[in-house]
Structure to design on (702 residues):
């Protein structure tokens, strides 16, 4: 009756208001009573004309405003945005936990929402009992839980502790068990909030794999919130970008993510050095388009704008780091080939040919710094560029190993920085 | 299941009184069962005496009340031993108070569920009734076989006991709904509940029988629990017990009013639970 192109979710002008300041205005009767009394007193007195002294100490906060979108059957849609952008509120509205203040959503099909790992787990109950309880909480019929029980247990890898109360579980075991139950849900629409952020890496990967299988083979509709952009990129083909409660972008994942990372997450470059300072840094394609990650571009360039006072011994250095700040690789034209910044005061724009080894899925940073040869770093900008990598996408692994540094290899190609055009100071 | 529901369109909108609510309640009956089962399972975990606690508390209360009303105050008890009068009242009271407290706390004690998953919230107060019933059945299973020792023989009236248990639950559920809805917003009611129970214990004929206080009977019957407690005695204690219809009618009428109004208030506030709790 329904075709694959039917929208299964149609959100129309959704808005959700919370009152902040005194979020729950009357948490105790005493507050409510005091409030009433104040109200009463104010009504007795003439109102000040300017409206000052009004009773309201609450402030409206619109967690969602005018959010409209459609999701078709079988689509996997990622939702990204900063903390507080309204992602979780949107999921709560869609899963009927809270009601929208305005607007409506029409939903076709059975919805299961996974806003937290292990919702309804009871610490005193055993793993076996919690599988049933959690399944029921997530809306799985008992017969279905029973049918899938063995599969769930096998997936969770906690067979040995099945009859131990989960309060004795390590947090890893707890998460594994909880996610296993969730992974075996079979709703028409699955709503998932940042739940993959927990658990060890290996298990995270397994879960991602499971979710991918589910969407591919069973054509399930999934809405997926995550801060792990690599996970979003692997799983989704379309993305919503929320910002301050509004939809700022809705389109193909790669485009939306690039926009998001550029708009929200690219760090600002601050500070300056004694002789030479970094002013801009970013990744560009051959054609000069700004990008934020590795997803299939043939070749990427690191573009850096440096402002120098003409000091003759300045050079550039870059470090590839993970987000903990561990240095994974170094590129230092100053050390490798004796390259120097031009001894001309002013702004210079350079492109450095990047040729990265196949990086693991995740997020990396590139620290960029100017150096003063002989005295060390001059202007050091940690994470001047953020870089997302998705290991699932095979980009041409054409890189040159020149020198080993620390635990990894240096990451940038041999070619010296190439001035693009010396811009006027 | 999904095949059928797939084509039903669900509309989420502000202020929409959900037409599916009662159907949903039925669809979630398994969750109701699981929550009840969870509460029962967890109740006596990590206790040494375990299920005995269900018996110890009413036993001690019964001894105390028998001493105060039977011995000190010298109240009459008719042909049955005084302790039997108190015990029958105590069982009824226990059923009520445990259900009332449970229903009153049911939402706040399931806060994490309310904030994270959808289910008709009425499931929460309904599921806690099970624990009160189970505790009461345990006490009955222990005391009823002992009844002949007190000269009480089983009669057909014993079979009507479930009806009176239902009446006790009805009062508890209706009153508890109000408390549980109010507690979501005003945590004061967590403190008010024990206080109400303490007062209730004194104005309910738990430690004495109204049969021997004809002057006070009508006044006491204003309390919806009077009819319930006297009903328990009428069922359990043998043919000499009278059933005062007035108190029973008052009890049923009050509980009906409490349930209807409680449901109304609960449903009205329900959609804001997740924001308030």
């Amino acid at each position: 009756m329904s075709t694959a192109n039917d929208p299964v979710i149609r959100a129309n002008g959704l808005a959700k208001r919370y009152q902040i300041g005194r979020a729950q205005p009357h948490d105790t009767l005493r507050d409510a009573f005091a409030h009433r009394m104040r109200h009463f007193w104010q009504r007795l007195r003439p109102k000040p004309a300017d409206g000052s002294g009004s009773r309201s100490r609450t402030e409206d906060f619109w967690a969602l405003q005018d959010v409209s979108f459609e999701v078709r059957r079988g689509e996997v849609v990622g939702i990204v945005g900063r903390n507080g952008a309204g992602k979780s509120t949107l999921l709560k509205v869609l899963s009927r936990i809270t009601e929208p203040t305005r607007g409506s959503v029409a939903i076709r099909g059975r919805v299961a929402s996974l806003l937290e790992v292990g919702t309804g787990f009871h610490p005193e109950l055993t793993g076996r009992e919690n599988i049933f309880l959690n399944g029921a909480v997530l809306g799985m019929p008992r017969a279905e839980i029973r049918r899938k029980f063995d599969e769930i247990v096998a997936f969770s890898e906690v067979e040995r502790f099945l009859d131990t109360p989960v309060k004795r579980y390590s947090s890893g075991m707890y998460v594994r068990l909880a996610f296993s139950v969730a992974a075996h849900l079979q709703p028409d629409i699955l709503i998932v909030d940042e739940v993959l952020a927990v658990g060890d890496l290996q298990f995270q990967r397994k879960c991602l794999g499971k979710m991918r299988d589910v969407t591919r083979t069973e054509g399930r509709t999934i809405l997926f919130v995550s801060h792990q952009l690599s996970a979003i990129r692997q799983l989704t083909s379309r993305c919503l970008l929320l910002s301050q409660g509004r939809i700022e972008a809705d389109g193909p994942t790669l485009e939306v993510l690039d926009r998001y990372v550029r708009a929200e997450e690219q760090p600002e470059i601050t500070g300056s050095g004694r002789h030479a300072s970094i002013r801009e840094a970013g990744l560009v394609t051959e054609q000069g388009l700004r990008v934020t990650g590795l997803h299939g571009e043939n070749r990427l360039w690191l573009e850096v704008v440096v402002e120098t006072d003409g000091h003759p011994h300045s050079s550039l250095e870059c470090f590839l780091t993970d987000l903990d700040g561990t240095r994974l690789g170094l590129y230092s034209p100053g050390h490798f080939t004796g390259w120097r910044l031009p001894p001309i005061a002013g702004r210079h724009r350079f492109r450095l040919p990047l040729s990265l080894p196949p990086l693991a899925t995740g997020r990396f940073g590139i620290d960029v710094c100017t150096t003063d040869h002989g005295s060390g770093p001059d202007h050091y900008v940690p994470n001047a560029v953020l870089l997302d990598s998705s290991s699932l996408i095979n980009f041409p692994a054409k890189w040159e190993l020149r020198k080993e540094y620390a635990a990894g290899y240096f990451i940038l190609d041999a070619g010296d920085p190439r001035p693009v055009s010396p811009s006027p100071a | 299941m999904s095949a059928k529901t797939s084509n039903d369109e669900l509309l989420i909108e502000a202020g929409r009184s959900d037409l599916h609510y009662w159907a949903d309640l039925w669809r979630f009956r398994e969750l109701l069962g699981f929550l009840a089962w969870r509460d029962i399972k967890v109740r006596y975990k990590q206790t040494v005496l375990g299920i005995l606690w269900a018996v110890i508390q009413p036993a001690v209360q019964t001894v105390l009340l028998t001493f105060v009303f039977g011995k000190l105050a010298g109240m009459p008890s008719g042909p049955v031993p005084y302790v039997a009068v108190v015990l029958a009242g105590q069982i009824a009271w226990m059923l009520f108070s445990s259900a009332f407290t449970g229903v009153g706390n049911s939402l706040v004690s399931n806060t994490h569920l309310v904030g994270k998953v959808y289910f008709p919230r009425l499931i929460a107060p309904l599921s806690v009734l099970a624990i009160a019933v189970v505790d009461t059945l345990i006490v009955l299973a222990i005391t009823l076989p002992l009844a002949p020792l007190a000269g009480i023989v089983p009669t057909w009236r014993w079979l009507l006991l479930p009806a009176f248990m239902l009446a006790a639950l009805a009062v508890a559920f209706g009153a508890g709904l109000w408390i549980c809805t109010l507690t979501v917003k005003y945590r004061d009611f967590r403190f008010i509940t024990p206080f109400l129970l303490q007062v209730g214990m004194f104005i309910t004929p738990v430690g004495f029988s109204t049969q021997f206080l004809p002057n006070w009977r009508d006044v006491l019957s204003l309390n919806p629990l009077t009819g319930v407690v006297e009903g328990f005695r009428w069922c359990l204690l043998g043919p000499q017990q009278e059933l005062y219809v007035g108190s029973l009618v008052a009890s049923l009428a009050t509980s009906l009013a409490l349930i209807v109004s409680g449901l109304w208030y609960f449903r009205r506030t329900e959609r804001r639970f997740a924001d308030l709790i």
User: Anything to note?
Assistant: Chain A has a mean pLDDT of 77. The longest strand of chain A covers residues 7-20. The two ends of chain A are 66 Å apart (CA to CA). Chain A touches chain B through 51 residues (CB under 8 Å).
